[in-house]
């Protein structure tokens, strides 16, 4: 089956059903997959010609919408030069300029950029940086991590070990994962000062375990896949001070929040602080290709390289892929050239107005919006298949999980499409009651 472009939809859907294992799915009872054949702007086109307004930005990534002429041009130009070349011993302008761009737009003192292929790997790299740093500076007992309850950092082993071991999706692997420490997530909402109660759990863990702690890792301001919860910058500010006091590194996972989604270019700006290590991914290439990066301060980089190994021990085959780097450069330029901050405010206002009606539904526990993210939390887990079918019938693409029905549309969505997206989300939920 090579000539898929000439195969009927039924034919390639059968290949898919027979052979492909989709994320978080069973091969015994495969979910009905929705065949998508093209995408432009905020619309996905299905095999039967129907169009859906995309409310997911392909899991936070397609911030400029699909098939963007500027990103297409960047990709084509790079393709003519070189689509890939190994990064060990060789370098190229697309990666070098991406490194400079990332350092320019992230807060000081982040100066070094380690490029990788996916968000999960960027987290692995961050964890390894923290561990190798302490080993190199003569504190090899500092090997544990402190993460937040409801956190999510990816599906690879190191990353899984920092996800909530109770409510998270990886508890099956708990026995073989390193045992890290978990603090209660802050309860105060975005915009509020952190209370003593918010700080108590993490402060106690830092006090009692700092000698064995390499780093605190968390998603700043927005806890994503672990519950779509928002909390305030003040918590981050107080935590930064605690990490300094107890000599524990701070890793921010900005894989979902990076590049404007929370209303700031990076969510740590809500707190006016900088982590020691920061992970970015998802929207880095505007959703075109898999690319991520782990940034660290000069202190960490120097510490690692002055240590026993003398080098940082990591090197993915596709590290610094030129095609992905060229698109990332173009995507960042496109974002910065736009009035993205006003645009996110516009989307936040549209989400607040459009999703408010959901709060009147009996099945809804809460509605909350921040930046380009709108969340409807249900009282009970949704019937995914039934709800998804309703969304599609109403012309929108939303993928709920558990009790969470949420949207983070591409930044280019028009007011009219945003209003329609919200209206249809609420209408589908009402029809499910
Ligand atoms: N960290 C956060 C906060 C995420 O939201 C995700 C993905 O959802 C990841 C890490 C993992 O990224 P990836 O799926 O690219 O491996």
TrEMBL record:
- Single annotated GO MF: adenosylmethionine-8-amino-7-oxononanoate transaminase activity
Residues the record marks as site: Participates in the substrate recognition with KAPA and in a stacking interaction with the adenine ring of SAM: 24
Q: Which cofactor does it need?
A: pyridoxal 5'-phosphate
The keyword S-adenosyl-L-methionine appears for this protein: yes
* Residues binding pyridoxal 5'-phosphate: 119-120, 253, 316-317
The subunit structure is: Homodimer.
Report what the protein is called: Adenosylmethionine-8-amino-7-oxononanoate aminotransferase
Taxonomic source organism: Zhongshania guokunii
């Amino acid at each position: 089956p090579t000539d898929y472009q000439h195969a009927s939809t039924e034919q390639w859907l059968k290949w898919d059903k027979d052979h492909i294992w989709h994320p978080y799915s069973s091969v015994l009872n495969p979910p009905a997959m929705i065949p998508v054949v093209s995408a432009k702007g905020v619309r996905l086109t299905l095999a039967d010609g129907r169009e859906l307004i995309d409310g997911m930005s392909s899991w936070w990534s397609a911030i400029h919408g699909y098939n963007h002429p500027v990103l297409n041009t960047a990709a084509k130009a790079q393709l003519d030069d070189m689509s890939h070349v190994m990064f060990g011993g060789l370098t190229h302008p697309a990666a070098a300029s991406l490194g400079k761009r990332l350092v320019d737009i992230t807060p000081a003192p982040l100066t070094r950029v380690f490029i990788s292929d996916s968000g999960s790997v960027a987290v692995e790299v961050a964890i390894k940086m923290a561990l190798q740093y302490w080993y190199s500076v003569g504190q090899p007992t500092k090997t544990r991590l402190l993460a937040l309850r409801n956190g999510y950092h990816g599906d690879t082993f190191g990353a899984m070990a920092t996800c909530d071991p109770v409510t998270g999706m990886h508890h099956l692997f708990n026995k073989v994962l390193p045992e890290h420490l978990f603090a209660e997530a802050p309860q105060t909402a975005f915009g509020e000062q952190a209370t003593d109660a918010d700080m108590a759990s993490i402060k106690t863990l830092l006090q009692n375990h700092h000698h064995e702690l390499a780093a605190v890792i968390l998603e700043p301001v927005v806890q994503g896949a672990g519950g779509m919860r928002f909390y305030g910058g003040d918590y981050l500010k107080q935590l930064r001070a605690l990490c300094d006091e107890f000599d524990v590194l701070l890793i921010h996972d900005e894989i979902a929040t990076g590049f404007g989604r929370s209303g700031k270019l990076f969510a740590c700006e809500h707190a006016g602080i900088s982590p020691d290590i920061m992970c970015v991914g998802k929207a880095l290439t505007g959703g075109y290709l898999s690319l991520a990066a782990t940034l660290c301060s000069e202190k960490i980089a120097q510490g690692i390289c002055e240590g026993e190994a003398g080098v940082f021990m990591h090197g993915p085959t596709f590290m610094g892929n030129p095609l992905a780097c060229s698109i990332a450069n173009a995507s960042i330029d496109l974002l910065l050239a736009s009035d993205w901050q006003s645009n996110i405010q516009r989307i936040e206002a549209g989400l607040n107005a459009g999703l408010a009606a959901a709060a009147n539904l009996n099945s809804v526990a809460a509605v909350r919006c921040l930046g380009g993210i709108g969340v409807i939390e249900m009282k009970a887990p949704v019937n995914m298949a039934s709800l998804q079918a309703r969304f599609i019938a109403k012309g929108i693409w939303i993928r709920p999980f558990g009790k969470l029905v949420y949207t983070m549309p591409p930044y280019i969505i028009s007011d009219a499409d945003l209003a329609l997206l919200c209206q249809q989300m609420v209408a589908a939920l009402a029809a499910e009651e």
